[in-house]
Write a structure and sequence with these properties.
- There is one protein chain.
- The chain has 82 residues and is α+β, with helices and mostly antiparallel strands.
- The protein has one domain: 2-Layer Sandwich (GMP Synthetase, Chain A, domain 3).
- It is 27% helix and 24% strand.
- A three-stranded mixed β-sheet has the order 1-2-3.
- Helix 2 links the parallel strand 2 and strand 3.
- The longest helix is centred in the N-terminal third of the chain and has 11 residues.
- It starts with a helix and ends in an 8-residue tail after the last strand.
Length: 82
């Protein structure tokens, strides 16, 4: 059974409450999504680490109910550096 875009967003927001999340269904089939995730939690992390953090937020659904997810991750530009 495919995932709903709202479910993906909810899982990501549960792990990163401050995140700005945009989910797009790329093929209209509920299996191929793109996600843009922006959160301060990514500060100082490599792109690979950021993506791993998002996959962890999805609680094992990648490769199962969620077939494909194209990720774009970033840190908010208006946040002061710590």
């Amino acid at each position: 059974m495919p995932m709903d875009a709202n479910d993906i967003e909810s899982l990501i927001k549960a792990k990163f409450p401050d995140a700005k999340v945009v989910i797009s269904d790329l093929a209209g089939d509920g299996d191929h999504f793109a996600a843009t995730v922006e959160t301060v939690a990514f500060r100082g992390k490599t792109r690979v680490a950021q993506h791993k953090m998002v996959y962890e937020a999805l609680e094992g659904r990648m490769g199962g109910v969620l077939h494909a997810l194209a990720l774009t991750t970033s840190v908010p530009k208006d946040q002061p550096k710590e």
